[in-house]
Specification:
This protein is of the alpha/beta class and about 375 residues long. The protein has three domains: about 120 residues, 3-Layer(aba) Sandwich (Udp-n-acetylmuramoylalanyl-d-glutamate--2,6- Diaminopimelate Ligase, Chain: A, domain 1); about 110 residues, NIF3 (NGG1p interacting factor 3)-like (Udp-n-acetylmuramoylalanyl-d-glutamate--2,6- Diaminopimelate Ligase, Chain: A, domain 1); about 100 residues, 2-Layer Sandwich (Alpha-Beta Plaits). The protein is built from eleven helices and 15 strands. The strands form three sheets. It has a six-stranded mixed beta sheet with strand order 5-10-12-13-14-11. A five-stranded mixed beta sheet has the order 1-4-3-2-15, sandwiched between helices. A four-stranded antiparallel beta sheet has the order 7-8-6-9, with no helix packed on it. Strand 3, helix 3 and strand 4 form a beta-alpha-beta unit. The chain is globular.
């Protein structure tokens, strides 16, 4: 099976859609030809010059990383910094660069779910759910075409709510129209007002799926001009920032720190001590200080994240153990997510884990 840069990009974006990324982010294909064949793909947390050199040595045509090497526009390509050096090296060696960053943070089975699994949390759910990710499509169609149109749009993701699919609401009514000169009506006659028994069909969908649902609807609909509405809804979906869950059994603070250090393979853990047992645990891979108050309000006994500033450690007021395990340590398992997505989609495709430790921080323990 021939696999291209576009195939890999599409598989990752189906799992973690690009419109789920934060506004400041730059996820997606950063360097490369979408039609280029990829025989082997290197998976890494970061994309450094050492990772590119590793890809060259291992004959990989693509690097998939969690962190984008390019966050803002490049004004030159002279090799004066690591970003430019990486881009130049990738272009010279026909290596595509793809990043899957905050969109992977925000999806239900992304970065934070992996941490939850490593820690053995049960009943894990999104800590801060996002709004504005859903909409409702309303359309009007002849009764005779209902089954065909419903099947077409449901197959593209319309009407999926939690563990249910083919969800919709419909009411019967009468539609009227008059075809003018130049029209090619499937029903009625030019110049005459026509009445048709119609169904008003409503379905909920992800905003990311709207275009493909509309395309399927248009192809299945008999009318030359299809009437439809797209309505934004404020309902929250099971996606967003951080997660929270429970340990199978309560732990005293020392045992929890040992469990955390071992599970996440950390060299050190910075933490705020508390005196109570740990049961409910909130997590956020990467920089999660913005979720401290939400974690407290959700009743977390501990909050695992990274990049906490000195004064932010005071914000829990000793009622919650804040644990800073390091940015690299909190996100290094993202490569496991990439590998699963790609192996599920392309069973015989070669995905390689980078052996380069890209963590810029070292710990002096002597």
């Amino acid at each position: 099976m021939r696999v291209t840069v576009s195939d890999i990009s599409n598989a990752l974006e189906e799992f973690a859609p690009l419109n789920y990324q934060e506004s400041y982010d730059n996820s997606g294909l950063l360097v490369g030809d979408r039609n280029q064949e990829v025989k082997a793909c290197l998976l890494s947390l970061d994309c450094t010059i050492e990772v590119v050199e590793e890809a060259i040595a291992k004959k990989c045509q693509m690097i998939v990383s969690h962190h984008p090497i390019v966050f803002s526009g490049l004004k030159s390509l002279t090799g004066k910094g690591q970003v430019e050096q990486v881009v130049i090296a990738a272009i010279k060696n026909d290596i595509a660069l793809y990043a899957c960053h905050t969109n992977l943070d925000n999806v239900r089975n992304g970065v934070n779910n992996t941490i939850a699994e490593k820690l053995g949390l049960i009943n894990a759910r999104i800590l801060l759910k996002k709004s504005d990710t859903l909409c409702k499509i309303v359309t009007y169609l002849p009764e005779l075409n209902l089954a065909e149109i419903q099947l077409a749009i449901h197959q593209e993701g319309a009407g999926q709510i939690g563990n249910y699919d083919f969800c919709s609401f419909r009411v019967n009514g009468v539609g009227t129209f008059r075809a003018l000169e130049g029209a090619n009506p499937s029903l009625g006659e030019i110049g005459k007002i026509h009445e048709e028994s119609e169904v008003k069909l409503e379905v909920l969908c992800h905003t990311k799926d709207v275009n493909k649902i509309l395309k399927a609807m248009m192809q299945a609909h008999p009318y030359e001009e299809v009437a439809y509405d797209i309505i934004a809804v404020q309902n929250q979906w099971e996606m967003g920032s951080g997660m929270i869950g429970e340990l199978a059994e309560e732990m005293n603070p020392t045992d929890f720190l040992e469990h955390l250090k071992k599970s996440m393979q950390c060299e050190v853990v910075k933490y705020v001590p508390i005196s109570k047992s740990i049961k409910k645990v909130a997590i956020c891979g990467g920089s999660g200080s913005f979720l401290v108050k939400k974690a407290m309000a959700s009743g977390a006994d501990a909050f695992v994240t990274s990049d906490m500033k000195y004064h932010e450690f005071f914000s829990a007021e000793k009622s919650m153990m804040i644990c800073d395990i390091g940015h690299y340590e909190s996100e290094k398992y993202t490569t496991e997510i990439f590998a699963k997505v790609l192996s599920d989609k392309f069973p015989n495709f070669a995905t390689l884990f980078s052996e380069t430790n890209t963590n810029p921080i070292k710990y002096y323990t002597n």
